[in-house]
Amino acid sequence: MEEKKFKVYLKEKQELIDSALDSLLSREDIFPMILHRAMRYSVLAPGKRIRPILCLAACMAVGGKEEDALAPACALEMIHAYSLIHDDLPAMDDDDLRRGRPTLHRAFNEGTAILAGDALLTLAFEVVAVAKRLTDRQVRQIITELAIGAGHRGMVGGQQADLNAEGKTITPEELKYIHSHKTGALLVASVLCGAIIGDAGPKQMVHLKKYGQANGLAFQIKDDLLDIEGKSAKLGKSTGQDKKAEKATYPSIWGIEASREKLKEATATAFALLESFGEEAEPLREIARFIGEREA
């Protein structure tokens, strides 16, 4: 897929997801208004929508229908938004800027931010549970993958390990655990949810899971590098936060050049895992390229 076509593809899918999210979120004039305003402020903020787009693309790659994957895709973005809200809190990273705007606890207040995150996490599971285009089996499997990807065996576990590592010297194995869980687990869930909806075969599921893992690693390494080399205005968030918080990152352990090489290796692995797929998987290939080359 040409770069120009991929940009059009991304824009179309972002608009599709944003429209669906808008319809799934409660209106701002519904009581309690501040909670619903906060939820919409976070979820509908400009973003790449990588996780929901991965869900749609994986579904299509195995012969599924995009419209069947839209509700779970939105659920993934809600979970991602909740994680960003809580990650930005004073007890975590204490950030002031997210997606080019004040973080939710700065724009509203800390209590509302916590509750908005909680509400988005639970709403995500409701959205999947009531999705009319999914079979009961698919609903059970998707809810399981979301719980694994977002919970103590995934994102939350990785966040805890990340907190524990602040200001300490850790091993490369411990850093790999942090990255594969804090960032990678929800990316894996995104791909697997799409594959489940498209009724992927066992071999396809294995390859797509490994593809998600490779993308998760690439995404976090790139994030680590952008925190050093990126510009705050383009990223929409503060840079230099990892060093300030004494976080363990790939550049801090391996150095910048070695981290760049590991990023290339992860992207190449993602591509290799899609060799058995046809043209339907072209968006997945381009997403892997985009993750490794993005500037924001």
Report on this model:
The chain is built from 16 helices and 2 strands. By secondary structure, it is an all-alpha fold. The chain has a single domain, classed as Farnesyl Diphosphate Synthase (Orthogonal Bundle), CATH 1.10.600. It has a two-stranded antiparallel ribbon with strand order 1-2. Strand 1 (97-98) and strand 2 form a beta hairpin. Helix 4 runs antiparallel to helix 10, helix 7 (136-150) runs antiparallel to helix 10 (184-197) and helix 10 runs antiparallel to helix 11 (202-229).
How would you summarize what this structure contains?
The chain has 296 residues and is an all-alpha fold. The chain has helices at 3-24, 33-43, 50-61, 66-87, 104-107, 110-129, 136-150, 155-165, 172-182, 184-197, 202-229, 232-235, 241-244, 250-254, 256-272, 282-293, and strands spanning 97-98, 101-102.
